[in-house]
Design goal:
This protein is α/β, with parallel strands linked by helices. It has one domain: 3-Layer(aba) Sandwich (Rossmann fold). The protein has 7 helices and 5 strands. It has helices spanning 8-17, 22-31, 39-48, 52-68, 76-92, 100-116, 125-132; strands spanning 3-6, 35-38, 71-72, 118-122, 138-141. The two termini are 25 Å apart.
């Protein structure tokens, strides 16, 4: 069975608009048991929730994954690997130092997808293709 991991930006679209992109809706319809939820995405969604209603909308997204045990959380080796990758990225691209906090989460998400053998879905082409140049992982950029 194929495995899938969806980036925060695509869930934010759902929370803000109340509708999902057709591509994501089709993924949920056809392969829901193969979709995993990242604890990184849960953290980012909850950090962005500015009201109790926003928090509830975020929780509605990840609670079903918690119930069935399909939450992916980066482990110690992911953190170590991310440190090495980010050091190389910043060595090659010192202009990205200000983006480091966002790149940390993106790198951990990419490494989580890689270790799970999942495809990562995002709109964030720039950051994830940059990370992909350092460590291979399956990526689909949704437009």
């Amino acid at each position: 069975m194929a495995k899938h991991l969806i980036d925060t930006d695509l869930y934010i679209d759902l929370i803000q608009s109340g509708t999902t992109l057709p591509f994501i809706r089709e993924l949920y319809d056809k392969d829901a048991p193969g979709i995993y939820f990242s604890s990184i995405v849960a953290q980012e969604l909850l950090a962005g929730a500015r009201s109790p209603a926003g928090k509830k909308r975020a929780e509605i997204l990840f609670r079903p994954f918690e119930r069935v045990g399909r939450v992916v959380t980066p482990g110690h080796n992911h953190w170590k690997d991310a440190g090495g990758i980010l050091a190389k990225v910043l060595h090659d691209r010192p202009d990205l130092k200000g983006k480091l906090p966002a790149l940390v989460n993106d790198c951990l998400l990419a490494l989580s997808a890689r270790s799970l053998g999942a495809t990562l879905y995002t709109r964030n082409r720039d950051d994830f293709t940059l990370l992909q140049s350092q460590r291979s992982f399956s990526l689909v950029v949704v437009s």
